[in-house]
Amino acid sequence: MDLFQYDFMLRALVGALVIGLAAPALGIYLVQRRLALIGDGIGHVALTGVGAGLLLNRSPVLVAVLAATLGAVVIELVRAYGRTSGDLALALLFYGGIAGGVMLVGLSDASSGSLNAYLFGSLTTTSQGDLVTIGVLGAVLLVAMLVLRPALFAVCHDEEYARVSGLPVRALNLLVAVGTAVTVTIAMRAVGVLLISALMVVPVATAQQVTRGFRSTMTAAMALGLFAAGAGVWVAATADTAPGASVVLVAIGSFLVVALLAAGGRALRRRRGRATPTPAPVEPAEHEVLLG
């Protein structure tokens, strides 16, 4: 039976593909800045927003967007101006966000199933409205990451040089932070707040095994994100597994395969290099014969 004949599976597939394309486009900047785990921290803050929305009978996704954006801005300001290290700021968000979310959900009338849907994703319950939201926000995020790629790369690579060059470093850093919050929010129903960081980071790490330039790495990471999203939904549909976990496991499996192939290729090249004989020096007499 073709499971994709059902509308809910088609919505799940389209939503996963949009997220699989947009998440690595932003994630490459986080990897470049060594902030690979920031998605987890913002995801936990978004969970507090979900709990607040359920408690106040407001849209959990809308409140999560506001909470995640606020958390992203706080992380960026602490990183730029605060005396607390970035790792400590992330740790505080990790623990405070998850604790606040669990407490607020417990105070509301929502069941534990509602919390699990946001923790681990519930892609097959994506509604038409959810799909429109994912599509619009994903498209805006993707366009911003591609159009501003030279400026964002300059800031992520060397912030001082970018500032001297006249780039609005603070605004660009805040853009990346807010973009991370948007990515976490739109992916919350797909892979869950506990797994979204993997979809932003793992395709980038996979692409780095076989590419060198920033543009080629970004392109390969987006292609790998699309593959992981599509293949993960297919695995979930055929094996009756959780879509979010399936997408992430496919992405990690792709990383392992590519890393092993890349390591084998490097070992083979080194072996061929050692096997190539070094040309013997030409004696003077032989050199004269060759010239004659």
Please give a structural write-up.
- The protein is mostly helical.
- Helices cover 79% and strands 0% of the residues.
- It contains 13 helices and no strands.
- Helix 10 crosses helix 11.
- The longest helix is centred in the last third of the chain and has 33 residues, at 243-275.
- The termini are far apart.
- Residues 285-292 have low confidence and may be disordered.
| CA-based shape | globular
Structural class: mainly alpha
User: Order of SSEs, N→C?
Assistant: HHHHHHHHHHHHH
Low-confidence stretches: 285-292
DSSP helical segment count: 13
Question: How is the biggest beta sheet arranged?
Answer: none
Number of DSSP-assigned strands: 0
Radius of gyration: 23 Å
What's the pLDDT, averaged over the residues?
80
Helix content: over 70%
- Separation, N- and C-terminal Cα atoms: 79 Å
